[in-house]
Amino acid sequence: MSYDHQGTSLDPFAGERTESKASLYRDLHREPNDPDRCRYQCAQPLANLLALPGLPSVPREAGSLKTQAAWPVWRDSVAKKIRFAPLSKKEAAKRWHKARRFDRQTHTAGKHGGVIGRTGLAVLYVLLFDFLDYASGRLDPSYDAIARKAGVCRRAVAGALKRLRDLGLLHWQRRCREAMDQLGRFCLKQETNAYAVLPSTQWRGYFEPPPAPAPAPGTWGDHPPLPDQLAQALADRAGGDSERAVLMRLSDDPADNLACALAKLFGHVMTVKA
Within a 10 A sphere around the Cβ of 37, how many other Cβ atoms? Predict the structure, then answer.
């Protein structure tokens, strides 16, 4: 069945002029209970609807829905000064190597990396070695700065930071500052987050590796046992050392009670003879 430009049927066998659904879509003033018209209006974009009296109109730009809050800052933002904890470069390097070990511990077959991931390690690296002030502990880079240094996108930075926080490696505090708007009114402005890299004792799921075993006797790295104080004193006396030097050798080890007692005895005897 065909229709003319006004939406009426051109069927010669139709007993009456019927209207197509296309005319219902173009005519917005038909019956309010018409189901086709209701579906059409409900399917309209939000920006195409008329604004109600007394309410601001919805912006028509795509993705331009903005908040109407007086101060568009995060709810948990603080305006007070943040106190950073100093962190030495040596300790930062230790935490970095432990984070790599943590990622290797949680590696599963068939997947790239462990729970931290390549992006998480890259973000942690730039935080520790590119932005951290070791003397003051200040660490407050922006998302864009982290993304530029790590070579990833801003969205990847957000995901990596959240993953590091959930694992206990990182903590941050949102910040804001007091300012004035264009009309001279008081307002709050969002600032960059303040970060802190936590010690490995607070990491969730991380465990320290067992200490390396001592070298077996007689192998490379095994040191021979040292002789006791009496044997060393006799060896020194046989080598030609004086009696006073031998007494000093006996009193070198306070834990050797016998050697200390002999040193006091012979020292008293030498004093009486003198």
Answer: 18
What is the amino acid identity at position 76? D
Digit-coded pLDDT (tens) for 192-245: 999 999 999 999 999 888 888 887 877 777 777 777 777 888 888 888 888 778
Tell whether 209 is covered by a domain. no
Name residue 19's beta-bridge partners.
8
Residues 167 and 203: beta-carbon distance below 8 Å? yes
Statement to judge: residues 93 and 179 lie in one domain: yes
What DSSP designation does 146 have?
Answer: H
Could you list the residue range(s) of the whole structural domain that residue 158 is in?
89-202
The structural domain count of the chain equals 3
* 125 and 176 part of one domain: yes
Cβ-proximal residues to 35 (8 Å cutoff; 6+ apart), any chain = none
Same domain? 32 vs 137: no
Q: Give the CB-side neighbour count of residue 270, counting CA atoms within 13 A.
A: 12
Calculate the alpha carbon distances from 91 to 28, 120, 198 in Å.
71, 19, 11
